[in-house]
Description:
The protein is α/β, with parallel strands linked by helices. It has five helices and seven strands, in the order βαβαβαβαβαββ. The model has no long low-confidence stretch (mean pLDDT 95).
Amino acid sequence: MLRIETPLTLEKLLNLEAGQFLYLSGIIYTARDQAHKRLVELIRRDAELPFNLKESIIYYCGPTPAPKERVIGSCGPTTSLRMDGFIEPLLKRGLRGMIGKGRRSLTVRRLLKKYKAIYFLAPSGCGALLAKKVLSKKLVAFGELGPEAIYRLEVKDFPLIVGIDSRGVDIYENIE
């Protein structure tokens, strides 16, 4: 199986095609609805962001508290469609990848093609398994949001499927 590491450079993502399975290793950031809203507000105010979006990947996830013997609790993907309205400002700042579950809007497909970015699907219903792929977790911003805060995760062999590639090809539109 294909293996890639962060940062997600343009050269790496241009070789990925919708429907491919891969293992991702490196740094990703969690963010859900409220964190996205705050990031976009910071961008609109031209304020400093809590992490560099350039060549980064955001995982639509709200991890559960970690059991004593683990780095993180269950950390499965959340529905991505809710983040669609926040995407363009993040892409303009260099975001290269998103991880979630479910379909995206036609607008997002067009934006991924325009900004040369990618949308990955994480296996839903597998939050406990995905947690075993997380080596470290660190709070980055918006701690008051609890599980919806932004966390920096270091992952190893995180299983993904390319849902929409940088050419705008969407596996949901190409199912026979």
